[in-house]
Amino acid sequence: MGILGTMATDCEIRIDYDKLRKDRLKKMQDQIRKDKLGAILAFDHDAIRYITSTKLNDWMNNKLARATLVSADQLPILYEAGSAIEAKKKLCPWIADRIFPFTGGAMRGSFPKEVVFKHAKNFAKEIRKILTEWGVENEPLGLDITEIPFILALQEEGLNVVDAQQTILEAQKIKTKEEIDLIEMSIAIDEAAFFEVIEHAKPGVTENQLNGLMRKRIYELGGEEIQNINVISGNRSHPHPHDASDRMLRMGDMIFIDIVSVFNGYHTCYYQSFVVGPPSENQLKIYRQTYDWLFAAAALLKPGVSTADIARQWPEAEELGLESEAAAFALELGHGIGITHWAKPVISRWFSIEYPEILEEGMVFALETYCGEGNDAARIEEMFVIEKDGARQLSKFPSKHLISTPNVGNILPR
Prior knowledge:
By secondary structure, the chain is of the alpha+beta class. Helices cover 34% and strands 21% of the residues. The protein has helices at residues 17-34, 45-52, 85-91, 113-134, 148-156, 165-173, 177-200, 207-220, 281-298, 307-311, 325-328, 406-409; strands at residues 39-42, 67-70, 77-80, 99-101, 141-143, 161-163, 225-233, 254-263, 266-267, 270-275, 333-336, 343-347, 364-373, 376-387, 390-393, 403-404. The two termini are 41 Å apart. The relative contact order is 0.11. The chain is globular, with a radius of gyration of 23 Å. Strands 4-3-2-1-5-6 form a six-stranded mixed β-sheet, with helices on both faces. Strands 7, 8, 9, 10 and 16 form a five-stranded mixed β-sheet that branches. A five-stranded antiparallel β-sheet has the order 12-11-13-14-15. It folds into two domains: 17-172, Creatine Amidinohydrolase, Chain A, domain 1 (3-Layer(aba) Sandwich); 174-409, Alpha-Beta Complex (Creatine Amidinohydrolase).
């Protein structure tokens, strides 16, 4: 379907959110059954949203103060932060009768120490009681992330605690049509933000000012969360710092920018590169190498291809002037994307050649490459969905040629 509009309406089927909710839960329950878990107790912000189709804003991302419990045969229970319970009961009818206070929280241990352990023990008893009612108290209980006192409390209750992260990621790996449409809408919003760079990047503008302009545009168009916008320019660009600063742009600077934003739960990871004014021959060479590395890998994308085959298209660490593949990690890279920023598969020379995975229809992921020399560097990232006979590129920003910001590029001859 692609993009039809950011709003659900009464007069057109755009994103079918009811189907999205049901499909995600079914995928998770099928994976729980396949992995022979009794249940999953998830604390991760994105996992809770995937299973329950509920959220709190990003202030709650790292608090470990919400959770959901679900089994292969039982609908999920949502343990919600106290004051949000009544709002969820009104606004989320698909789970309204299964929302309870989260009694195990300690806001990452910030409560008095005695309260931390008391809450952990009480919540562990509550979880065991429900698992017993479900008849799965003797089967493995999968967790993703939580506080250590709570893990100890579950073990004191005699529960077999195991890692559920792989189960959760496997369930999310193959995207439904609705998920792909939401990712593409999220990408389209980022592309509008990249045009703020074309219009405003000029000498005297700072990286942080561009960051702010792009954030404003994303929120205007319906983005609900921005995990980062890294604006990196000039002599900050090599080696890659993976952040932003108050550096002021100068004539001739290369700029590369990473956006990780969220639309209705679905993430982007999207790099594009620019130059303030006409590019030099060396800048064009750097950019062309970055582009060629990316699309040499993209040309292989189709079901059945190994991640090892993709990783081999990229330079070894020594060619990049680095001592090991671990040191080069995140420069030439592929990673799944969806309701989480990083998902399966992850592709890197660090491990993919030794431990390959096979691409499957319905996977959505980003490929990103980097090349730098002296004070210049470029980074490009594009997003793709694997289809029956190949791959479709979801990102559409014109990356084939290095873009010179017009307000500056037009004042000097090329």
